Fold each of these.
Amino acid sequence: MPTRKLYYENAFTQSFQAAVLSCEADGKYWDVTLDQTAFFPEGGGQTADTGRLGSAAVLDVHERGGLIHHRTDSPLPVGGTVEGQIDWPDRFRKMQNHSGEHIVSGLIHSRYGYENVGFHLGGDGCTMDFSGELTRAQLDEIENDANAAVWANLPVTAAFPPAEELAAMPYRSKLELTENVRIVTIPGIDMCACCAPHVSATGQIGLIKILDFMRHRGGIRLWMRAGRDALTDYRRRYEDTAALSALLNVPQDKLIPAGERLLAQRDELKHQLTGLQRRQIEAPAAARGETDGSLALFVQGDDAAMRILANAGMEKCAGVCAVFSGEDGAYQFVMASKTADMRAFIKTHGPALKARGGGQERMVSGRCAAARAEIEAFFAAI
């Protein structure tokens, strides 16, 4: 016998009495079925209700073959009666969000013809995927009209219409449904096949806020919060804004100009720092006098720093400026010259330095397996 679904009879049922039909061990949990339940199972993109059955916590709920299975953290006596208690604050915030999603989806569908092709509602908020793209300005219009629908306090009804009546109804649905189709209707806004509990009037949603959006699989993905979730999100953002205002010591309505000033100061400091770093990198070359020979410089730095130093060093010598970083037997090098073809140079002298590398006519880089003493002796000789 299928489980009687009290959440269809009254979505506002918070507690109920039920007979325990079965209780089977499922790993470290128990799988419990009842003759009736107000716990909504996972489905339609919405996570399951949680709460308690007697002293047992209900951790998850699923429907299989018409039976609602409750995952609990402790067993219940089969044949006994148990009191169920829904985690009502969580259930109601889901009802607010899901009903808000119907309003937004209905408006987008009627205005732009886009289908809702994806929906998720859990503890981390609500996301919706649509089959076409929208701009921020278009979404602002949808948000305004969605909240107007909330403030109009329109009725939200749900019913299982007979097949002949269903066939004539212009309802939205992600799936091809033929029987036991539950239609949720918000007059003038949306008519959609849906299995989830909803508010009874749009005013109970309170507020709808579209937080963000992005392109997704040829369409768009929205992040939305409604009701208590929208209030919680606003409160968090306000607290962040107030904290940032105090941190910067500026009024909240002056945060954007203050941020722009900080970014400009940051860019100027980065520019100054880059100059200082460049002069520091070039210091070993700057400390050398000009020479008709070659230079061998040893530093600890990355490839970019070595190239800067090689460029500075080759201005001080008529031969080759060779920059090495690392340790004996495992050096990286950059060599540069204004006068020599460095590709020919490394090809000719690479074996003597135990070096391999390549690059452009004026600069080459690579690895060298010689010791520092060998390298210094080589460049002193040439």
Amino acid sequence: MPKAYGRKDRVAALMLQETAQLLQQEIKDPRVKMATVTEVSVSPDLKNAKIFVSFLTDKQDEIEEALVGLNSAAGFIRSTLAKRLKLRYMPQISFAYDSLQTEAMRLDALIAKGLNKDAPLEDDAQS
């Protein structure tokens, strides 16, 4: 029976914590502004890891530029993580944009727009 919180999940949690700290303190690339690590997905064999990041901007060209900057720094980030985590094998890393936060804000705005209509509610019309 597999553990509820297996090695893959523990490695992902450690990578998330260390990558977030690394991006905040050591990456000086101006293209990578205010990147937030939202999730790390590690393959079952621990050979590959996908790091999901979000940004404060919603401009697609700035997001793509930041992802290029992050993926170009992937070697430095991987070697720094290997030193900090002391794993036997450090997974290959790649970065991907996490659009969940942007989509949540868009849906929230749509809901707010729907609630703020001037039309009376059905209950009010029947009274």
Amino acid sequence: MLTDRMDDVKALTVAVGPHPLYGVLRLTIAGLDALKVVSDDGTVNISGSGLNAQFTNANVYENDGQVTVYLNK
């Protein structure tokens, strides 16, 4: 991933099934500055450092500059 400032940002996805095109189960993002994470009734909004993302039916966990979003079926 690259931000609008072209900084390197680390992102890792875990697939739902044996092939990555089946969908994403988990997304982990690290290395973003000034990240704002808002979670409300299963909707997760992440913004900052040139990133804007919205996930529905999801849970989010923040830990020491790392954000992990778990996407539920």
Amino acid sequence: MRTVKIKFKSTLAGFLTGAVNGLFGGGGGMVAVPLLKNLLGYSEKRSHATAILVIAPVCAASAVIYIISGYLRADVVIPAAVGAVAGGFIGAKLLGVLPEFIVNIIFIAAMLAAGARMLF
């Protein structure tokens, strides 16, 4: 019974993450990390690392739809993708060395900054 409950929670977390990412073209990590941490009991670092692996195929699926729909411009997407890969590499390295408390503070600050930016 416990396995069924965990699978249901994992599926629910995945569905919510995918829905947010697909609807807004990103932001799945902002949903995935708290769900993995609070709903599934993952540690802070494990939540962030798992969120990346969960979001990667979701982003790929969303990107295909956006490409088919004509929403992407290569002159913007290619440089952004190069920067994202470089930033992802550096961020993953930092996740391995920073204490969980600092990772949590950075994540909270990023969420607050994103929220404030959307309001103003």
